[in-house]
Amino acid sequence: MLKKSSLLSLGVMLTISMSACSKSTPAPTASLTNTPANSANEPTSSANVDSNLVAQTVFKQNCVSCHGVDLAGGFGPNLQKVGAHLNQQQIVTTITNGKGGMPAFKEKLKPEEIDALAIWLFSMK
């Protein structure tokens, strides 16, 4: 028979997992809305902002349950500096086809969503 604390822990984990799979988009958090600093010679365009918002929304809806709200990982690996280790095409390939325990998202995400997510993740250095 499971102890009360084990049942409580299981219930909390299930609640978190279920909420992460929800289709509703939570309010942006500081860690997900931060984008890399632009230099003075590199103005932020509305296309970049739109792409970042798409990427952050896709991340929240599909990735946060494994990679965490702050990209620090958990079930999946830490992505806070993924752009320092993988190039943009490698990130696209991983999202599209999956890798190791990560499922493929080619059937779930549109190519432009995968591209936006890869660009955003590649900027994490």
From TrEMBL:
<feature type="binding site" description="axial binding residue">
    <location>
        <position position="102"/>
    </location>
    <ligand>
        <name>heme c</name>
    </ligand>
</feature>
<dbReference type="Pfam" id="PF13442">
    <property type="entry name" value="Cytochrome_CBB3"/>
</dbReference>
<feature type="signal peptide">
    <location>
        <begin position="1"/>
        <end position="22"/>
    </location>
</feature>
<feature type="region of interest" description="Disordered">
    <location>
        <begin position="25"/>
        <end position="47"/>
    </location>
</feature>
<keyword id="KW-0249">Electron transport</keyword>
<keyword id="KW-0479">Metal-binding</keyword>
<keyword id="KW-0732">Signal</keyword>
<dbReference type="GO" id="GO:0016020">
    <property type="term" value="C:membrane"/>
</dbReference>
<dbReference type="InterPro" id="IPR051811">
    <property type="entry name" value="Cytochrome_c550/c551-like"/>
</dbReference>
<feature type="binding site" description="covalent">
    <location>
        <position position="63"/>
    </location>
    <ligand>
        <name>heme c</name>
    </ligand>
</feature>
<feature type="binding site" description="axial binding residue">
    <location>
        <position position="67"/>
    </location>
    <ligand>
        <name>heme c</name>
    </ligand>
</feature>
<keyword id="KW-0813">Transport</keyword>
<dbReference type="InterPro" id="IPR009056">
    <property type="entry name" value="Cyt_c-like_dom"/>
</dbReference>
<dbReference type="GO" id="GO:0009055">
    <property type="term" value="F:electron transfer activity"/>
</dbReference>
<protein>
    <submittedName>
        <fullName>Cytochrome c</fullName>
    </submittedName>
</protein>
<dbReference type="InterPro" id="IPR012218">
    <property type="entry name" value="Cyt_c_BACSU-c550-type"/>
</dbReference>
<feature type="domain" description="Cytochrome c">
    <location>
        <begin position="50"/>
        <end position="125"/>
    </location>
</feature>
<dbReference type="GO" id="GO:0005506">
    <property type="term" value="F:iron ion binding"/>
</dbReference>
<dbReference type="InterPro" id="IPR036909">
    <property type="entry name" value="Cyt_c-like_dom_sf"/>
</dbReference>
<dbReference type="InterPro" id="IPR008168">
    <property type="entry name" value="Cyt_C_IC"/>
</dbReference>
<keyword id="KW-0349">Heme</keyword>
<keyword id="KW-0408">Iron</keyword>
<feature type="binding site" description="covalent">
    <location>
        <position position="66"/>
    </location>
    <ligand>
        <name>heme c</name>
    </ligand>
</feature>
<dbReference type="GO" id="GO:0020037">
    <property type="term" value="F:heme binding"/>
</dbReference>
